[in-house]
Write a structure and sequence with these properties.
mainly beta; 7-stranded mixed beta sheet; 4-stranded antiparallel beta sheet
């Protein structure tokens, strides 16, 4: 199983960034996918989720209306479009796959926000 995030980097406050997560080694279209984030010294927090078919999405209140999660089951990818990025969005962002009791994590991609 492999989950690899990309697209992180430095973004100005108010700017946009698109994170990507490419996967392999499991039946992607069975899995609900999500993005989480973590800053040093704090717990990892859920940012956004998307169901296996992509028909249901959910967002943390802090990102609702600014971030959009999407997926491409044919390409086994999931995305996080981040708009109107704020300094408090700076974190390591992780991609997560969940199916029943099985779950997999990626290694993360760092998002840094300059004000």
């Amino acid at each position: 199983v492999e989950i690899v995030e990309s697209g992180g980097g430095l973004v100005q406050s108010g700017g946009s960034l698109r994170l990507s997560c490419v996967t392999s080694g499991f039946t992607f279209n069975w899995y609900d996918m999500s993005w989480h984030r973590q800053v040093p010294g704090k717990s990892r927090e859920l940012v956004a989720t998307i169901s296996d078919t992509g028909g249901i999405t959910d967002y943390a209140p802090a990102v609702q209306g600014r971030f959009t999660i999407s997926r491409n089951n044919a390409e086994k990818r999931v995305y996080l479009q981040m708009n109107d990025v704020k300094p408090e969005d700076a974190a390591m962002y992780f991609c997560h796959a969940t199916w029943r009791t099985i779950n997999y994590w990626g290694q993360g991609t760092q998002v840094t926000v300059s004000s």
